[in-house]
Amino acid sequence: MLEMIIETLREWGITGLFLGIGVEALSIPFPAAIVFLLYGYVINPAGWELLWISLAASAVYTAVAYIPYALSVRYHYLVSDRIKTGRAQRMVRFMKKYRGWTIAAGRVLGMGYIVYVAAFCKITPLRYGFFTFIGVFPVALSMLYLGGLGNVGEVYVVFQNLQYVITAVILAGIGYYIYYRVKLKKKNAEKKTFVESAEKR
Q1: Does residue 176 lie in a domain region?
Q2: pTM of whole model > 0.85?
Q3: In Å, how far are 45, 176, 192 from 184, measured between CA atoms?
Q4: The organism sits in which domain of life (predicted)?
């Protein structure tokens, strides 16, 4: 698969890059991070070239990502079925608390289904686009740079491991938040019971 993507990027240039990341932006399971990494390996960008390619690619990704967003808003009744899984429900709770920053984190982690969560939580188009962009840009910049260093296989393994670590931290944060809320609710219930008992006396 890596060789096929490399050859496509060599033949198609930046158009191949835009097409590759556009696939993931459509919420189709496809590793956009590895496309950035391999494109960096092929052209070895530096300086202003690295910056403008990262900005342009992030803008294209964001623009294409509006397609599944618009469809999710239009067919919201179908979205409700897509987010019934435990993982999606956790992201819904997370987004209700942190709003747009959940979208940015989801883009860093390659969570294509984040668009359905955003539509379900009624995130505005402007916020959706803004946080999608700032989530994709650091991935684009870092992967293009690291790809230019040459050790594509090793770098991608490190990036995958980093994604796992970030995911674990987010899940731990959600778990702690739920635990805190349950404990607080239990404490308030006990306090209410104590007050009611005291009043009866």
Answers
A1: no
A2: no
A3: 52, 12, 12
A4: Bacteria
Q: What is the pLDDT along the chain (201 residues), one digit of tens a residue?
A: 667 777 777 788 888 888 888 888 887 767 777 788 888 888 888 888 899 999 999 999 999 989 888 888 787 766 666 666 666 667 667 667 766 777 777 777 666 667 767 766 778 889 888 988 998 898 888 888 887 876 666 656 655 665 565 566 666 666 666 777 777 777 777 666 655 665 565
Determine, yes or no, domain membership for 51.
yes
Q: Is residue 182 part of a domain?
A: no
Tokens of 132: 């999608």
Range of the domain at 77: 2-152
93 within some domain: yes
Count structural domains, the chain: 1
Task: Say whether 84 sits in a helix, a strand or coil.
Answer: coil
b/e per residue, 14-53, with b = 16+ CB within 10 A?
A: eebbbebbbbbbebeebbbbbbbbbbbbbbebeeeebeeb
